[in-house]
Structure formats: structure tokens, C-alpha cells
Amino acid sequence: MDAPVTMDVMTKGQLAGRHIVLGLSGGIACYKAAELVRALAKEGASVQVVMTEAAQQFITPVTLQALSNREVYASQWDARAPNNMAHINLTREADAVLVAPASADFVAKLLHGRADDLLSLLCLARPIERCPLLVAPAMNREMWAHPATQRNFAQLRADGATVLGPAAGDQACGEIGDGRMLEPEELLEELIAFFQPKALLGKRMLITAGPTFEPIDPVRGITNLSSGKMGFAIARAAAEAGAEVTLVAGPVHLPTPRHVRRIDVRTAQQMHDAVLPVAAHHDVFVATAAVADWRPANLSEHKIKKDGKKLAPSFELTENPDILAAVAKLPQRPYCVGFAAESHDLLKHAREKLSRKNVPLIVGNLGPATFGQDDNTLTLVDAAGHRELPRADKLTLARALVAEIAARLAADKT
Ligand code: C5P
């Protein structure tokens, strides 16, 4: 295997070094732009706010200047720039223009290449190859559903823009439906994902995550300390890389990463039954779940009570199916990646799992040092040797693992 890579622990933020032009057109969702500016800045981005006249009816430049720590631009006649060309200058250093909120009227204007205010002018004048345009629609559901709006957004996509959302739900007008702007946190996640390399575009990845829970009686069960964080981070990283991701999750309290299809299960048998029928339709299977090896042979219908004689109940256990080994045996098997959470002799156990489960890659980590933690150290073990991914947060490690898997898939093809 290659020499160890140095991982950059992301203390600087996910958007460190990125410069974003944030455009606001007129809509009540302008109130969310203040939070969005804060969220972008917190992740290390510098933000240049540009507003239309209509946007200033909803939120003041003062608020956005204070939060972005930069003067806000609103007029194409603004003479502050020495060359008097704000519409050119503002996008030349930008990594992206994000219009949030994007009103129906503003988008109608954009796609015709009209440019009679600073924001539409700079969208038209931006270097299209190196300064992508992202738009987050925000409007009433009838406006969103109108054929004219749908036509306009389809054309905007065809012209190369990325459309983020909209979401469905309660609207400021009191109606319910599609058209809400995504929340600031969601827009942030979308933007971070946008900048990730698309190494798994067109690929399908299936992931198991979290613990399983094997019931003993209606109120008790056997489980373990897996938090699911590593598996969820891999699901996010794979989706960011362009994969279509299905995540089969045991009982955990974690939000579903954006664009990930999640199937919740409780027991190992349920996890097995969710995975096996669909596994062959995927390119990659990553088994991060800490599946209970055993389950009580008989489920007690009622809560088991103390009998007053101080005799502890005894249970017969039966072995759970090995999901990873079963997937690896499929004739049309996906590329299989297993995990090994050990308390000692990590390499020895990982190598043993590699051959016992007949998979090409095992990712080893020390159980007590990772369960529930936000960071980790991984050891990649294959038939040729092993390689360390040094301590980093789980999302950084997940992205490195996804890049490794993508490289292996590409090499398999050649
Ligand atoms: O079987 P063992 O726990 O040693 O191996 C761990 C690896 O196998 C992990 O990838 C885990 O998700 C997977 N596994 C499984 N089904 C089981 C037990 C483990 O998929 N019943």
C-alpha cells in the first residue's frame, strides 16, 4: 500500500479559503439570509453580500454588513470601486455566486440574460467556467408550481446553474406546499457538498450503520455503544461525492445526511433483510454497523420479573446472520468494505476478517477509542498490506475512505 497520508483535521472550517458572493432577491425568506451569512462565515468562508432593491424591503444592508464584516453592494451605479465596475469586480475572486432567496421574478430575469440591476448584472458578467451559480428558490407554492416558473428553472439548470431546493412545508403566506427556501443549515451543507470532488458520480452505495438492538423482553435488550457517527459520515461523504446512497441504520439519534435514503431497522435480522435483497443492485457495500453477534433465542412476551429467590434468569442465545459475509457471497456482489472495531491486536484481527469474510478491504479501528467519539484513527487493511489514516474528525476520514473506494472501483475497471 502507499505511504501514510496526512489528514487535515478541519479546525479551519469546511469552507476555509472560499469566497462566496451571496445575492439576495426580494422575498420574505430574506430573513434567513442573516443566519446563512453567519453559518458561512463560521465555516471559514468570506462572504460578499449583494442585494436587489426588493431584498432591501425585507432586510437591511446594515444587518448583512455587520454579519459579513464587508460593505454590502446593491446598485450598479455604486461608485465606491475605483473603476466603477462593481458588477465585474465582485465575481472575479469568487468561488461561487449563491442567490438565496431567488425569487420567481429574479430567476425569470436571469434566464433571459437581462441585467438591469447589480445582482443580475454580475450573474451575467461572471466568468461562467470558474464561478458557478447556485440558486435557492423561495416563493409561494402556486408561484413555484406555475408552468412559467417550472420552465424558467428547467432552463436555468440547462444553462448550468445548480438549483438548491426548494423545500416543502408551511409558508409565510399561510399555505402549505413546495416553494420554501431551504434552511440556512441545509444551504450550508449543500454548498459544502458542491465543492467536494464528484468521485462517485453515477455509483450506488449501500451502507449499514449504528448498533443493533436484540430484544430480550418488551423493555430490555442486548445492544452496544456504537453511535452510528462513522457510518453516517460515510453516507454524507458518499452523497457529496455524487453517489446514490442508501443507509440502513440501527437505533441511533442522528439526522439523515442530505440526499441519503435511510431505512431504519432495530435488529440484526431486520438489517439483514433490508440489505440482502438490494445489495446486488449497488456498486459498493460498506458495513460499518456494529451488529450484535447473538440474540436471545426466545423473546419473552412479558417483562421478565425477579422471582424473589434471587435467581438470575438465564438466556439461550442464537447466532445472528453475518450480513457482510452474506453480501460477499452474492454472485453479483458489490465492492465490499468491512469494519473491524477491536480492543487490541487490531491488525491481526483485521487480517483475519479479510479472509474469513472474503472481502477486499477491511477498515480497522479501536472500539473503545471510537464509539461515540467525533474523531478517530483508521487502518485500511487489504491483501497487499495496510495503511493508516491518522487521527481526524469522522467526516474527514469518511471523505478519505470514499476517495480510496472510488480509486479502487476505477482501478478494478482498468
Ligand atoms: O463479524 P465481526 O464483528 O468480526 O466483523 C465486523 C464486520 O462485519 C463489520 O463490517 C460489521 O458491520 C460486519 N458484520 C455484519 N453482520 C454481522 C456481524 C458483523 O455485517 N452479523
Features:
single chain; 414 residues; alpha/beta; Rossmann fold; 2 domains; eight-stranded mixed β-sheet; 14 helices; 24% strand; elongated; binds cytidine-5'-monophosphate
Explain how this protein is built.
This protein has 2 domains: 19-194, Flavin prenyltransferase-like (Rossmann fold), CATH 3.40.50; 204-294 and 318-413, 3-Layer(aba) Sandwich (Rossmann fold), CATH 3.40.50.10300. Strand 1 (19-24), helix 1 and strand 2 (46-51) form a beta-alpha-beta unit. Helix 9 crosses helix 14. With 414 residues, it is an alpha/beta fold. The strands form 5 sheets. The protein has an 8-stranded mixed beta sheet, with helices on both faces. A 5-stranded parallel beta sheet has the order 2-1-3-4-5, sandwiched between helices. A two-stranded antiparallel sheet has the order 6-7. It is built from 14 helices and 19 strands. 42% of the residues are buried. The protein is elongated and about 85 Å long. The chain has helices at residues 30-42, 61-68, 86-92, 104-111, 118-125, 141-145, 147-158, 184-194, 229-240, 268-279, 323-328, 346-357, 367-370, 394-413, and strands at 19-24, 46-51, 96-102, 133-137, 162-163, 167-170, 176-180, 204-209, 214-217, 220-222, 244-249, 260-264, 284-287, 294-296, 317-319, 335-342, 361-366, 375-382, 385-393. Mean pLDDT is 93; it is low at 1-10. Bound molecules: cytidine-5'-monophosphate (C5P). Cytidine-5'-monophosphate (C5P) binds at residues 208, 268, 287, 289, 291, 320, 322-324, 338-340, 353.
